[in-house]
Design brief:
By secondary structure, the chain is of the alpha/beta class. It has 17 helices and 5 strands. Strands 2-3-4-1-5 form a 5-stranded parallel beta sheet, with helices on both faces. Helix 12 packs antiparallel against helix 17, helix 13 packs across helix 15 and helix 16 packs antiparallel against helix 17. It is elongated and about 75 Å long.
Length: 348
Amino acid sequence: MYKKAVKHSFKVFSENLKNGTTGSVLFFYGAEQYLVKWAVETLVKKYVNPAALSVDYVLLDEENVSCEQIIEACETFSMFSQRRVVWVKNFRPLMGDSVRGYRKEDLIALADYTRESNPGTILIFSSEEIKASAVLPAALKKQAQCYEFDRIDKSELTSFARKRFPAAGVEISPKNLGLLIDLTGYFNRESDYRLFHFDNDIQKIIAHCSDGRVEESDIVCTVEGDADTFVFDMLDGISGNQKDKAFQLLYNILSSGRDAFSLIGAVVSQFEMMLSVKQMREDGMDLAAIHKKLGGSEYRIKKMIPYANKYSVGKLKQILSSIYETDRNIKTGLLDSQLALEMFIAGI
């Protein structure tokens, strides 16, 4: 049976705003806090007079903002704007009732207030995570306009990027746009990569490219990050019998302030995937089948295949065992991080 696609909350929000059906109390939550920020800014732009911004737009994001402060901010009437906007950001009682500094009766009173709040004020509660059974979220779910700003889909992410490159006077081909999305890992199940990161990477790519056109190299060196680039460059040096190059890369990245454990994490991630790629290739699987099995970035898998071909399964297991030991030696204080990593490179 055909199942109708559910609209993302940002589209529903946009429609409500356009139709003038925005309520007085809004509840924003979910992984994409970029969209929460966008929604608030859109409301402020529509309802708050720029000349009265400092008066009619109130952001309450202090750790211990009280229920009384929230109600007081909402009950103050605007004389200059169409509506006053009060944003209670990352309000801790949204994540549970047993929050230090908040009495349950005060939370109940605030929940009751949201039923008949000042219609001249738009009150917004937001939090990335919520406990739906807690007093305030449970009340908001019943009586507020609720928007779960979760991750967007591939077509929406593509549209997000397409708008930003031309706006900056920069061209990007469909192929390179696909590479960019693939490299970000946005759709990896365990990824914590969000639209804030994506928007930042787009700005870095725009700044990096020349002649107003994005090339593959602009994307790879900007999005992959220092740690991932280090692993491939290190392998280039080692496979080319230039361990001195690998050592120099290590010194450069550590002297730049890079945390040794995040570097080890990148090394482990790359070699674990390389081992999986090697084993699947030996089982006769092609790139498409490997990507379907492993998920993640197809570009990253494709890039790993030539390196995986240079090592046996046994050698890759040995390298992984060595980096696990390097991690233990650093964490237990047995070896200095630089010395431990030098020994790891020397042993490959």
